[in-house]
Design goal:
Chain lengths: 223, 223
DNA sequence: ATGGGAACATTGTTACACAATGTGCCACGC
DNA sequence: GCGTGGCACATTGTGTAACAATGTTCCCAT
């Protein structure tokens, strides 16, 4: 068929589509962190060339969901405790500044159009916790933080935060901090209220608590 | 030659080396923002295959120094005013949190081992301003901010900041804010002192000033 | 038991080809 | 003369096949 003007933009490239598919599976926890991702295997499994597979792995490498080491290959990323702390520090930087920008824009308090998407995200978290689906719960939890950051209307902070979100989902696919049923939702309702009052201090307290729970869960996993 | 155990790690891959070479040139302002980077041209100029060139362009795309659009190709990144503001907001997030972490670690003030590399970077900035070399000056300026962020010992904040630094160098390769000779150095000596006292407020004031100067310089360039 | 080296697995790169898409230009109709 | 459709062209995305380069594993000799 000869080229001709299209009425719509083309779909994602094959490499982008593979990256998306692998990203979804990785964030679901299968393949697990540390698993090698062999180019030829992926090429045959997805009926693609090694070139296309390599491009997809490079994309995931840039997102840090995959670790690519020259001549050694790609593996699903793992995260030690030092890396967890460093990641949470970066997360604190982004969420704190987002909350501060929100405060600048709304010095008299967050109006309903700021609160509504955040409250909706918390409601979604309540539903997920109620369904006892850990994957859905971690995604809904991420949605709450995403809604808060998005409200600041700072695209680069939002984008950087989205990348971290994926790394955190990868981590949480393998650990399960102790929360009583509904505990995450209650905690996040309080958290959002505290944000309006205390701003950055509330962010830091929340993330310190989160880090401690994750480390405790990981310690339990390795014992 | 048959494979044999090596006493050293291999050098960078050809794709990484090309990415590094292009990065250097882009940050020097040639090719200029908006310039198309044609795969076949680069392949012939560097005696590499298109696959290797594509891998290098993808790396630079991930760093946002290059904009890669499927089926349209790669161009040196450009930055409009909205993007500049968004970038500076992200920068504020990183530098503010770095300074806050420094304050946590050194509540009684920054000890000499924290100050020394920062002061050395400022001295390097003074030398660069004295030499009237704009490229050297923007790099030395970046070195000052890098030293401050590095002092916080938070690897993910430092790495995210390094990526922004490259984008800012790209921007500054094309504009030149008005500074009297030595003005940048004096301003940054005061800035570092203010950081110890005022922390995040000093960061925000500094970046707001920087944004205003850059926008003014860009406005002058387009008129 | 240990270490050197060969074999093997895997990745990085190359050459060449073709499919897919976007852009520009030309011709035709009004 | 102008606008639009369509074709040609340039460029990118992907594929095949091969080989160079590197890291790992295993075997054999000491």
């Amino acid at each position: 068929m000869s080229p001709r003007r299209r009425d719509s933009t083309p779909g994602p490239t094959a490499a982008a589509a593979l990256a998306e598919s692998l990203r979804e599976r990785i964030l679901e926890g299968d393949p697990a962190p540390g698993t090698a991702l062999r180019e030829e295997e992926l090429a045959q499994a997805h009926d693609l060339s090694r070139h296309t597979v390599r491009a997809a792995l490079a994309m995931l490498g840039a997102e840090r969901l995959v670790e690519v080491v020259p001549y050694r290959g790609a593996r699903v990323a793992t995260l030690d405790d030092a890396a967890l702390i460093a990641l949470q520090q970066l997360r604190a930087a982004l969420e704190t500044e987002a909350v501060r920008l929100l405060g600048d824009t709304h010095p008299s308090g967050w109006p309903i159009e700021v609160r509504a998407p955040i409250d909706a995200a918390i409601d979604a978290l309540a539903s997920a916790e109620g369904s006892a689906d850990w994957s859905a719960t971690t995604r809904a939890h991420a949605g709450v933080h995403r809604a808060i950051v998005a409200a600041a209307d700072s695209p680069r902070i939002a984008e950087a935060h989205a990348h971290l979100e994926a790394e955190i989902l990868l981590l949480l696919a393998q650990v399960r901090p102790d929360y009583p049923s509904g505990g995450l939702t209650a905690e996040h309702r309080s958290y959002v209220d505290a944000l309006g009052r205390e701003g950055g201090a509330a962010v830091r307290e929340h993330l310190a608590h989160s880090t401690a729970l994750i480390r405790a869960a990981r310690a339990k996993n390795t014992n």
